[in-house]
């Protein structure tokens, strides 16, 4: 019998599952169908990155970590096997997650502008250096 993937869990329930013999993760966001709860205990030894990587985020929202790694479609399909439910969020938790996402987006956009400015400064410096050597 397949586990009830629609069972709702609160973060307070998930946080206690952070050990080698009992490891749950929350992965998912608004772009991927919402946060889901996964019991990855039986997968720890099979994880290509090692058990320690998953244990470091056990009992936590590991979505950002999961997405930053750039997991393959095969990994995403494998993950589905371990879903045991969905994360139930209070209105305050939803607002906090939205605020954190907006802050992260603003920081990444700001970082992109800084990089552009740096590249332009380097190009101008090289052009000026070249111009002065040609005089």
Automatic annotation (TrEMBL):
SUPFAM superfamilies linked to this entry: Cytochrome b5-like heme/steroid binding domain
Protein family according to the UniProt entry: Belongs to the cytochrome b5 family.
Record-linked SMART domains: Cyt-b5
Gene Ontology MF, one: metal ion binding
Domain Cytochrome b5 heme-binding, residue spans: 6-88
Alphabetical UniProt keywords: Heme, Iron, Membrane, Metal-binding, Transmembrane, Transmembrane helix
Superkingdom of origin: Eukaryota
Protein name, per record: Cytochrome b5 heme-binding domain-containing protein
Record's subcellular location: Membrane
Residues annotated as transmembrane: 113-131
Main location per the UniProt record: membrane
GO cellular component: membrane
Metal-binding as UniProt keyword: yes
């Amino acid at each position: 019998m397949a586990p009830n993937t629609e069972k709702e869990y609160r973060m307070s329930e998930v946080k206690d599952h952070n050990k080698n013999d009992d490891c749950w993760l929350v992965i998912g966001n608004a772009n991927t169908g919402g946060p889901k709860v996964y019991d990855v205990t039986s997968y720890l030894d099979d994880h290509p990155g090692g058990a320690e990587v998953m244990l470091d985020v056990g009992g936590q929202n590991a979505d950002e970590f999961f997405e930053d790694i750039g997991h393959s479609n095969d990994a995403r399909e494998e993950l589905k096997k371990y879903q045991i439910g969905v994360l139930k969020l209070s209105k305050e938790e939803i607002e906090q997650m939205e605020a954190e996402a907006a802050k992260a987006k603003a920081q990444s956009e700001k970082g992109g502008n800084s990089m552009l400015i740096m590249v332009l400064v380097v190009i101008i410096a090289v052009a000026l250096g070249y111009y002065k050597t040609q005089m």
